[in-house]
Amino acid sequence: MRHGKKINHLGRTDSHRKAMLANMASSLIKHKRITTTLAKAKALRMYVEPMITKSKTDTTHSRRIVFSYLQDKETVTELFRDVAAKVANRPGGYTRIIKLNNRLGDNAEMALIELVDYNEVYGKDTDAAEKKTTRRGRSRTKKADAPAAETTATSEEATTEAPAEEAAAPAEGEEAKEA
């Protein structure tokens, strides 16, 4: 019986599984997304998310703990410098798993695992989500939109006047050439 055994052994020995997860975590941190099987992606998420949480506190102790798992100095540096700065205000859920089509050779379920804050496609929705109405029912951006509308109106007036002056200038030049 496997009561309380949460670790998926992935059909490997303990040392092989740890080495494989360390290599996959290093690749995920370096490349920000990797394609693998669904079972490995789920195991990798459980492996890498505590390390990203550790990287939020940049101390020598936390760096040594993360290095004991990854065994790659450049990856640890990138994790503590770049990734930790991006996920500083996120309370968890640093990775996203997206299911892909099955692999052609053995029909294995494939998945794309990526760091959430490095995806440009989904990052644009957060800007739209921030524009909410207040409890009084008016939008936060109404005051900001009103001066913007005035400035666009003045810029439109300036652009409508400019072509008229430009149109008049060549006409005078043509008259001078004719004379």
Automatic annotation (TrEMBL):
A GO molecular-function annotation: structural constituent of ribosome
Q: State the SUPFAM superfamilies in the record.
A: Prokaryotic ribosomal protein L17
Q: According to the UniProt entry, which residue ranges have a biased composition of type Low complexity?
A: 146-171
Q: Sorted alphabetically, which Pfam families does this protein's record hold?
A: Ribosomal_L17 (PF01196)
Note the coiled coil stretches, chain numbering.
none
Recite the UniProt keywords alphabetically: Ribonucleoprotein, Ribosomal protein
What biological processes does GO assign it?
translation
Gene Ontology cellular component annotations, sorted alphabetically: cytosolic large ribosomal subunit
Region: Disordered, residue numbers:
128-179
Which InterPro entries does UniProt cross-reference here?
Ribosomal_bL17, Ribosomal_bL17_CS, Ribosomal_bL17_sf
Subunit notes for this chain? Part of the 50S ribosomal subunit. Contacts protein L32.
Q: Which family, according to the similarity comment?
A: Belongs to the bacterial ribosomal protein bL17 family.
State the NCBIfam families in the record.
Answer: L17 (TIGR00059)
- Protein name (database record): Large ribosomal subunit protein bL17
UniProt organism field: Pedobacter quisquiliarum
